[in-house]
Amino acid sequence: MILPIVAYGDPVLKKKAKEITPEYPKLATLIENMQETMYNAHGVGLAAPQIGLAIRLFIIDAEPFADDDELSEEERTQLASFKKVFINATILEESGEEWAFCEGCLSIPDVREDVFRKETIVIKYWDEDFKEHTETYTGLAARVIQHEYDHIEGILFTDMLSSLKKRLIKGKLMNISKGKIKQEYRMRFPLAKKGR
């Protein structure tokens, strides 16, 4: 089932999400619905807060990045098969040089800005079968994880921009929260119903 994606301005996007247990109701169905929602919106990642649930769950399928000719063959191969479910994730370490990449977000359509992030991460998480993993990622794979991880921490990529950039996109963000945008996928707008 395709779920509406929560737009910028909804308080759930600013909450630190809570851990879940293997007994979380209908977890497999939730993950399936999140995947369907992400693919419908042409995203490479989706976090539970983006569908209105403040839980520590996000999914990634970075395969669309595998078509980027600027990446090495090794990176393209890694991204082509990078499809994972992350539950109760914790980033244990971030290292390496900070590098810029133009990021976007399904909750903030039509806004893309350069964000600086460290190139390597070590992350501990549980998969959909609640098997524990500790893994190291670099490059674009690390970046996609960092972006989705920020969602479960209540952080948006726009929070990481300079105060000047924030001022420049303030009007766009307000329009998104009011639903005054055109988008190709279902969304839920926090201020649209209130007539603001």
How would you describe this protein?
- It is a single chain.
- The protein has 196 residues and is of the alpha+beta class.
- The chain has one domain: Alpha-Beta Complex (Peptide Deformylase).
- It contains four helices and seven strands, in the order βαββαβββααβ.
- The protein has helices at 27-40, 73-80, 139-152, 163-178, and strands spanning 5-6, 45-47, 57-61, 83-105, 108-126, 132-138, 187-188.
- The protein has a five-stranded antiparallel beta sheet with strand order 2-3-4-5-6, with helices on both faces. It has a two-stranded parallel sheet with strand order 1-7.
- A hairpin with a 2-residue loop joins strand 4 and strand 5 (108-126).
- It is globular and about 40 Å long.
Short recap of the structure:
The protein has 4 helices and 7 strands, in the order βαββαβββααβ. With 196 residues, it is an alpha+beta fold.
Question: Spatial order of the strands in the main sheet?
Answer: 2-3-4-5-6
- Percent of residues in helices: 25-40%
CATH architecture annotation:
Alpha-Beta Complex
CATH topology group: Peptide Deformylase
Radius of gyration: 16 Å
* SSE arrangement, N to C: EHEEHEEEHHE
Index terms:
196 residues; alpha+beta; Peptide Deformylase; 5-stranded antiparallel β-sheet; two-stranded parallel sheet; 4 helices; 27% helix; 31% strand
Detail the topology: elements first, then pairings.
Layout lengths: L4 E2 L20 H14 L4 E3 L9 E5 L11 H8 L2 E23 L2 E19 L5 E7 H14 L10 H16 L8 E2 L8
Parallel strand pairs: 1-7
Antiparallel strand pairs: 2-3, 3-4, 4-5, 5-6
